[in-house]
Amino acid sequence: MRVLGVDGCRGGWIGAVLDGSSVEWTYAVDVRVLLSGDAQAVGIDIPIGLPTSGSRACDVAARQLLGARRSSVFAAPVRTVLDCTTYAEARATLASLGGPSMSAQAFGITAAVRQVDEALTPADTGRVIEVHPELVFHSLSASDLASKKTAEGEAQRLAVLRDMWPTVDRWVATAPKPARRDDALDALACAVGAARWLAGTATVLGNGETDSRGLPMRIAY
Q1: What would the DSSP string read from start to end of 58-97?
Q2: Does residue 94 belong to any structural domain of this protein?
Q3: Lower CB count within 10 Å: N or C terminus of the chain?
């Protein structure tokens, strides 16, 4: 089983290819470099399948499951926001649609969302799935975790991954820059989601809807 977990990081993307008990790290500015590899399944922490208005059912369900960590789930931007070049323009666009606004932090990921959206077609969605790392960590630990930005939160996430891969501490220490340690942990969690998807054991959130491009609006973990 050769799977890839992908997380956005400063300036690009970090990929963790898992093949048995080893990891191969890759950093790329263009996500297509990672997606073009030979992994049997790819889990990526970015919204795939964008609504024309309102919220996706999978985002709502993810927030309900995560409880204290619900703020880690950014609402997927509506498709028209991808054409906006500034936060002010995005807010004006959303207001014209009569929907809720979005946070500056959520707008900050729209360039990454656009890049993935342009890279995928419906034919890719059997292999490439949206994974939320916090859902993976929550399922592995069966408990609420501290913020991944804290020393306690990092230690908790390393502990649950160490149960699967005793050498995970060394893996994270060798992750490529400019990715941070929490980016590496999230990429590994996305790889877990991809492995579950490939094995047919993943939990999938969403109501089965696809967006205007035929991309499924779902989150797997």
Answers
A1: HHHHHHHHHGGGGGG-PPPPPGGGGG--SHHHHHHHHHHT
A2: no
A3: N
* Residues 46 and 196: beta-carbon distance below 8 Å: no
3-state secondary structure at position 18? strand
Domains contained in the chain, number: 1
Q: What is the pLDDT of residues 3-41, one digit of tens each?
A: 999 999 999 999 999 998 899 999 999 999 999 999 999
Compute the C-alpha angle 145/50/77, nearest 5°: 65
Q: Work out whether strand 128-130 and strand 12-19 pair parallel, antiparallel, or are unpaired.
A: unpaired
Do the domain assignments include residue 157?
yes
Is the distance from CB of 26 to CB of 14 less than 8 angstroms?
yes
Range of the domain at 7: 1-74+109-221
